[in-house]
Specification:
By secondary structure, the chain is α+β, with helices and mostly antiparallel strands. It folds into 2 domains: 82 residues, Winged helix-like DNA-binding domain superfamily/Winged helix DNA-binding domain (Arc Repressor Mutant, subunit A, Orthogonal Bundle), CATH 1.10.10.10; 174 residues, GAF domain (Beta-Lactamase), CATH 3.30.450. It has 10 helices and 8 strands. A 6-stranded antiparallel β-sheet has the order 5-4-3-8-7-6, with helices on both faces. A two-stranded antiparallel ribbon has the order 1-2. Helix 1 crosses helix 3, helix 6 runs antiparallel to helix 10 and helix 7 crosses helix 9. The longest helix has 31 residues.
Length: 270
C-alpha cells in the first residue's frame, strides 16, 4: 500500500509539472500574439492573476520571456529567440512534412525538387532532393539568394500581405543574376500579381542561363513556403509537371493544417 501511495504522489507531481508546462506554452503563445501586460494575459488563460504571474516569473528566469523593467510588459525572451535563430533548425518540422513529396516529385520528373522559405530579404532552401541525372541544377540546403529571384521568390512574395510586400520591395535592390532576371520593380510587381492570381510561377534563366523553374505555394505554415521543381531548360517543360506539383503542395498543406491550424494564406491589406 505504501508503494502504491508513493506512486500516486509521484504521478500527481508529474501531472502538475505537465500542466505547468502546457500553461507556460499558452503564455508564450499569448506573448507571440502581441499581448504583453499581465492584466491582459491572465483573462485569456481563464485563471486567477497569481498563476500566470508565477508562470511569467519562471519564464523570465529561464530566458523564455523578458520583462521590460520600465513598462513591466512581457515579451518573448532571448532563450526562445536563440532557439529559433538557426533558420534550418527552425524549419525542421517543415522538412519532415515535405521530404516524402519532394522525393516523389523527383522520381516523377527526374528533376530537382526543393522547398523555399523567406529569410529576411533572401529566399532559403530548406530541403531539396537532387535530380539523379548528370546534367541538373541544384542548390545546397541552407543556400540563400535574393528573395525576388526565380519562380520560388515570386511565389513567396505573392503570399505576403500588401503592406509587407511593399516594405520588402522597398528594401530590395534588384541586381541581375541571369540573362532574364527582372531588375525593374514595377515589372516585378506585375509578375507577383500574376503569380498570386494563377497560383503558380514559372521562370526561365533568372538565376542563371539555361535554368527553368516552376513553383507553387504551400499553405498553413508559420511563414510563406514555395514548392519548386528546377531543371535545365533544354529538357524541362515546367507546365507538364504543374498538376503533380500542385497535388504535392496540397498534401503538404493538409498535413501542416493538422499541426498549425488554418493560418491566413495571404492578406490583401496587411
Amino acid at each position: 500500500m505504501a508503494r502504491l501511495e508513493s506512486y500516486r504522489v509521484r504521478l500527481m507531481g508529474e501531472t502538475k509539472q505537465i500542466n505547468a508546462i502546457l500553461r507556460g506554452v499558452e503564455v508564450l503563445n499569448i506573448l507571440a500574439q502581441g499581448t504583453s501586460r499581465l492584466e491582459d494575459i491572465y483573462p485569456d488563460l481563464g485563471l486567477s492573476k497569481s498563476t500566470p504571474h508565477r508562470l511569467l516569473r519562471s519564464l523570465v528566469a529561464s530566458g523564455l520571456a523578458f520583462q521590460d523593467p520600465a513598462t513591466r510588459r512581457y515579451y518573448l525572451g532571448p532563450s526562445l529567440l536563440r532557439l529559433a535563430s538557426n533558420e534550418q533548425i527552425a524549419h525542421s518540422m517543415l522538412v519532415i512534412f515535405v521530404h516524402e513529396e519532394l522525393t516523389r516529385l523527383t522520381e516523377i520528373t527526374r528533376e530537382s525538387s526543393l522547398i523555399f522559405v523567406p529569410c529576411g530579404v533572401q529566399r532559403m532552401v530548406v530541403k531539396q532532393i537532387r535530380s539523379p541525372l548528370d546534367v541538373s541544377f541544384t542548390f545546397k540546403e541552407g543556400h540563400t539568394s535574393p528573395l525576388y529571384l526565380g519562380s520560388a521568390g515570386r511565389i513567396l512574395l505573392s503570399m505576403m500581405g500588401r503592406n509587407q510586400l511593399e516594405a520588402v520591395l522597398g528594401n530590395l535592390e534588384l541586381v541581375r543574376f541571369g540573362p532574364k532576371t527582372i531588375t525593374d520593380k514595377e515589372v516585378l510587381k506585375v509578375e507577383i500579381e500574376k503569380a498570386r492570381h494563377q497560383g503558380f510561377a514559372m521562370t526561365f534563366g533568372e538565376t542563371q542561363a539555361g535554368t527553368a523553374g516552376i513553383s507553387v505555394p504551400v499553405f498553413n505554415y508559420t511563414c510563406p513556403a514555395a514548392l519548386c521543381i528546377l531543371g535545365p531548360e533544354f529538357r524541362f517543360s515546367p507546365l507538364d509537371v504543374l498538376e503533380e506539383l500542385r497535388k504535392s503542395a496540397d498534401r503538404i498543406s493538409g498535413n501542416l493544417l493538422r499541426i498549425f491550424g488554418n493560418l491566413t494564406r495571404t492578406s490583401n491589406s496587411q
